[in-house]
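Work Package 3 (structural annotation) set out to generate three-dimensional models for the target panel prioritized at the project kickoff. During this period the team completed the workflow that converts sequence records into discrete structure tokens, so that structures can be stored uniformly alongside our sequence database. As a representative example, we reproduce one entry of 523 residues exactly as it appears in the project archive.
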Amino acid sequence: MVNASSNNKNQHEKLIRLLEEQLAHSNQQNEALSKQIESLTEQVRHLTKLLYGSKTEKSKYNIPDGQTSLLDEDPSFSESEQTEEQSQQTISFTVVRKAKNKKRNDSLNENVEIKAIHHHPEDTICDCCQGQMVEIGSKMVREEAEFIPAKMKKVQHIEHAYECKNCKGDISQKAQIKRGKVPQPPILRSIAGPSVLAKVIYDKFAQYLPLYRQVKEWERYGLNTNDKNLSNWVIRAAHDWLFPIYDHMKHLMMSKSILHVDETYGQIINRSDGKPGQSNAYNWVYRSVPSQGPVIALFQCSLSRARSVLERFIDGYSGTIICDGYSAYDKIDGVTFANCWAHVRRYWLKANSKNGRIGVNYCDNLYRLERQFKHLAPSKRRKERQKYSKPIVEEFLDWVEKSPFYGKNALAKAADYTLNRVNGLKAFLMDGRIEIDNNPAENAIRPNVLGRKNWLFSVSEAGAKANAICLSIAETAKANSVDFYLYLVKLLTDLPNLDIHRNPEVLNQYLPWSKKIQVECSK
């Protein structure tokens, strides 16, 4: 009887343990499923926001530069408050609305030529006495813009030869002959002059007009050509005359200690690495900072996104590179990397949750301070960052580290992205010349993205290299307030007639920030 009772007890205990194990297993499954549901819910929320929500990264607490608060638009906030006595008084008055002059959103520059058209009465004979009437005044009724289309000219360069008649008959002397010298063209045996080449390059890289769409316009002006010709012109002009400027600017850039770097994809149809034309090629952009002299923005085309591409371009460079979180920006001798807070903020914004908004708020606080420090000298900006920005950064990183963000949801990804780049995110606190984000590089690379949507791809690697050179000249000219078209005309007119290969120092006079170019090609 005792044994039977003992056996029943053991069986009950085994059953209890089995049920407890099943319960624990079920709890684990429920917890895993809950995390999965939470992750999927966040993904659905994120995708819904991408599909239907606002595409901006701005928050209501983050007012960017150049934009005032909505409260500033209400004049009542600047008016003095009424006293109780004034409020109790009854005042009768009539509201008079003054007609405001509506601000025009179109205008003509002051240097535009003025053409006056005078309108007189058809008959200046008085209807009463038949006498001649005299003018008593005039009134300018309206102004309008008139467009005069461009026109093509055929410029013929003719050399004239002169000889001395006196010396010609003298047998003892050699006949004196002098001949006029035609300036060298930018492309030998080509009909394209400097202004035509400049227009082709300007329209493609400033107006984002593909070459095949330029052909019809050139035909309207009187120049019959095709997109293959235009492509060859761009490649030859970029290789022969723009590349020396590009290479000279690259040499100057490598002497600077801080650079912005970013990259974006593109396509090259005929690749030398054997990959199909649908494979991604890449355009890298390198941009200097304003605190280290005139801004230089250079593009580099490549077939890959590997770290070796970056290493070859910055070979021998020593300094700090401001970049995003891409793994290629790491482990390069002599280079330290400062990471971009805009990318951090973007990750927390994607989380779209209470904790995500907390992360965004930390970032917004840093940007609010940066707007205050924007115009300070680098040394002063460093001191202010150490005093005000550093505590926010440390509090933010401490909060992320102590918060239980696990799994594969957007919140966990934001936390991982932040904690994996702690040293790079703190770099801006140590040097006032370092920007808080990589937005200057992203802004510089935007024309390449806009162009890619229009001209779609490069047929050859030579064409891709020419694109990178032309974009570099365009962006550097814009950064230094130089008219890109006038600058191209100047380069393509002067450089073919200068010995730039024997005397490369002459290129200093043709850099976008030189006095010569600033005077002759400024906007």
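The chain has a mean pLDDT of 83.
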